[in-house]
Structures are given as C-alpha cells and as structure tokens.
Input
Amino acid sequence: MCRNIFFIFLLLFSVSLSAKEGPAQKETFFDRYHRIITQKYHNFIRKIDTFLSDTVEIEEHKLDEIIYKNRLETVFSFQYKEHQLKPNLYLRGNILLPRTSERLELVFSKQTDTRLKNQTIDPSYERGINDEHVNVGLKYYFMKRKDFALYSKLGMRLNLSKFDLYAKVGARQYLYNSLFRTILSANLYHYVREDGFIATGGVDFVREMGERFTLEQDNRVVWREETDETTTEHILKLYHQLDNRNRLEYWVSLLTRDDEEWNFCSDTYTAAIKYHHKINKWLFYDIIPQLYRQREDHFRLERAITFNFGITFAR
Output
C-alpha cells in the first residue's frame, strides 16, 4: 500500500511540473515564501558579521557579493528498500563572514555531501562523520586559494538526549593537467565522548568530455579508532547533461568494510542511474533506481529506489 501511494505521488508530481513556465509569471505563494526566507537568512548573516567584526570597513557591493554566496539547502529523501520506505533529511548550510576575509565560516549539516551525492546503499561505515544527528561547527581557513585549502573546525554533534563535541583538521588540493582534474582530500576528526579519532582520505579524478559528458572516478578511505574499522569506496560515474534542467548520472561502485575487532568483512556492489531535474533555480528532484549485491546476503541481487526533493534558499 505504501509503495503504491509513493509511486502515485511521484507520477502526479512529475506530471504537474512538466508544464512550461510562462515568460512573465506572477509571483506564486511558494516564490514569495522562498524570497522571504532568503532575505531573512541574508539579514541574519549580516548581523552576525557585524557583531563579530564591526570595525572592519568593506564596500557594500562586495559585502553583498560575499553574503549572496551563502546557501541553505534542504533535501527530503525517501528510499524504498527491502519492502520498506525509509525517509531521510539532508540539511546543508554555510555562513560566510565577509569582514573576516572569508576565513571564518559557520557550517551546519545533517548528513554529509558525499552521502547525498552517492546515495550509498550501506552508509553505516560513515557513522562517525555521517550520522542522523545535526552537526554545527565553526570552520576557520588557515589558507584558502583556488587550488588549495587548509582548515580546522570545532563543532557539536547534537541529539535530543546528548551532544558530542568534536574537532576536525582538513586539507584539499586541486591538481590540473591535460587529461584530468585531480582532487586530493584528507580529514582528521576527534570526538570527545564517542568514536575517538576518525581519519578520512580521498582521491577524485574528473575529466570533461565535451559539453554534455563528464567522467568522474572517486576513491574514499575511512578509518575509525573505536572499532579499528577500515572502509574503502570506489565509484565510477558518468554525468550526462541533457539540457539546462535535466541530467542523467550512471554509476557503479564497490564498498568494502573491514572490521578488525570482529574479524568481519563486508562488500557491497552497486549499479545505479540518477535522473536529476531542476524545476527552477531553487527547486529540484531526483529519481534513483539501484541494483546492489551484498556479501551478507550471499550476493543476492536486490533492488532499491530513492526519491529526493530539494529546496535551496538564498538563491
């Protein structure tokens, strides 16, 4: 019953959004609501920036340019897997402060960018850095260039019953050549109450193939001190830009989790297609059917489908 309701809703929603926008549409209730929230968000950022550094002079147009870079994105996700419909919420936001030369940034999130990007079937390996709680932190850039960033972060992982403090140090390097754009990343987390140290590393290769196609190969490794668990993930992804509003993504992935404490090893193989549609500049939805096999299930072929609906404020 739940599955039927979900697919009926998806069909109706897709059809209702297929109509073309007129050249001079009147502002709708949702447009007005989006505009008001965006204005309040930007005004809030101005007040924080002035409070922290009200003695620094900055030209108004430059102030606006930096403030308008701030984003607040909410994604409602529903994954149908193993005859169950699982809802999820992704929350991502940042507050760049112009008077601190963009070195200081307030960030908050629920789930990581990597989790949202790849829709991993088995996300448990990221439990320390990618959990169901809200993370709030203050990020400081020691160095911030176009091709390199070195930063630290102090934050809290919030829950209704408790919270955990953590510290993070990270770096990101961009390398360019005639074949690929290479992205190197490394992060070290330390949680005070739970999990202890967590280290992550990544190497991504990106190649533009004309105007419509982009090939990307991502590699991730995560080590957790608490369980001495090491996880690696490899993803090969092809982006196909159909037009300004529609994009297809094809990918295959391998995830391996090795737990030394329990002498346990898990493998997950996934193949998926993602359809991304921009309704307008601040609304979008994704449809992601997936096939996967897991070692725990004797590599039996399983199916899943994910539906995302996203709203981006401050745009």
